[in-house]
Amino acid sequence: MKKLFLAGIGFFLAMSLTFAQQTTPEENATKVVTELVTKLTLNDEQKTAVSTIVLDQEKAIAAIIQDSTATADAKKESIGKIQGASDNKILQLLTDEQKVSYQKYVTERPPVNIPVTQETTENKGSGNGQSNQ
Known about the structure:
By secondary structure, this protein is mainly alpha-helical. The protein has 6 helices and no strands. Helix 2 (25-40) runs antiparallel to helix 3 (44-66). 11% of the residues are buried.
């Protein structure tokens, strides 16, 4: 009975880890804004404006990732454009000192993870015969 109980707990822990990686745009935005507030020492007005920009960005990125008709390369390009536009909007709100810190944050930020789907895998395997050498 004890082994069954422990196995059940292990199963639920494994399932929670599987679902823990799937976050909402709101959760992502909150995480990013919290990090920016800490790194840039944003005032309340800046925090409110940055929160709106980042939430809009995260919602747009989530929509792109969910788009099953787009290729991985097209998704990366679209996400890059959205991040660039958001970066420009945020830079307009910052002081000169904050801009330097933000530029550093942008260069160090990890790329958005695009989940690999069956279609993405198939598109990678097929090419136009050209190599990248």
